[in-house]
Amino acid sequence: MRWRRAFGQLVFPQCCCLCDGPLADPLAGPACPGCADCLRPLAVPACLKCGLFLAPSVPPGRCGECRARRRPFRMAVAAAPYEGAFRRALLELKFRRREVLAELLAKPAVSAFRRAPRDHDAGTAGAFPAAAVAVPVPFWRGRRRGFNQAELLARPVAREFGIPLVRGVLRRRSRPPQTLVSPSARRRNVRGAFRAGRLPERLAGRPLLLVDDVFTTGSTVEAAVRALIRAGAGPVDVLTVARAWTPAPR
Ligand SMILES: [Zn+2]
Ligand SMILES: [Zn+2]
Questions:
Q1: In this predicted model, what pLDDT tens digit does every residue of 147-175 receive, in sequence order?
Q2: Is 52 exposed, middle or buried (CB count within 10 Å of its CB: 0-12, 13-18, 19+)?
Q3: Which ranges of the chain would DSSP assign to H, the alpha helix?
Q4: What is the distance in A from the centroid of ligand 1 to the CA of 23?
């Protein structure tokens, strides 16, 4: 009975992929209207450089950290804080490979990136990325799960922007999972975590878009950005679906 239900779900899902509530119109998408409505970009001010969501009272600009130190990326953008429906959907995607969810989550990320202000003073202005690259997962983890959630997201993102997704440029060495390491040790833990091969000739010096699921402390994406720049990339923008929610005072 269970497998029959599971099979039916696969062919013609009856339940919302996020809340398991009934799906009145399965052709409209894998999530019920309530859940789909929750997956919209958050409309609050964000740091122009790193995409950190700021308290609504804060005037637009760069967050304290971005003013204090140089970021290796040109600009980082996220659709929403890592909480609520976004968090649920990202965990579903990460552990259960729901490709329909990757499509659903790519949309708000794409619109957040399109409407992110390009600012000369923050150093985020310039040409649109020529190609997308997904942050790779450590080899053993990818092997065990059989997929990389960042790549599942990068595919619809690249398609929406009409740019190619370049695979195999970045590789990741095995390190203890970032969640098991204290924030201060995270930066050390990711140093040297990425190896980049040579970029295709046509991408040398061109801007790239690095795609990941969640921007937490930024240490992972920063290490990946540095590896891409060492490999000959031009400026690198970062697009994640979610951003750790830490409204910083300025
Ligand atoms: Zn739902
Ligand atoms: Zn910032």
A1: 899 999 999 999 999 999 999 899 887 66
A2: buried
A3: 2-11, 33-38, 64-68, 84-96, 99-115, 139-145, 149-161, 183-190, 219-230
A4: 8
Residues at Cβ < 5 Å from ligand 2 ion: 47, 49-50, 52, 63, 66
Confidence of residue 27 (pLDDT cuts 50, 70, 90): confident
- Encoded tokens for 153: 């997201």
The predicted-structure confidence for 37-46, as pLDDT tens digits, reads as follows 899 888 888 9
Q: Find the radius of gyration of the CA atoms of the chain.
A: 18
Domains along the sequence of the chain with CATH: 45-243 (3.40.50)
Instruction: Specify the amino acid at residue 71.
Output: R
Q: pTM of the prediction?
A: 0.86
Q: How far is the CA of 31 from the centre of ligand 1 (A)?
A: 5
**Contact between 153 and 160 (Cβ < 8 Å):** no
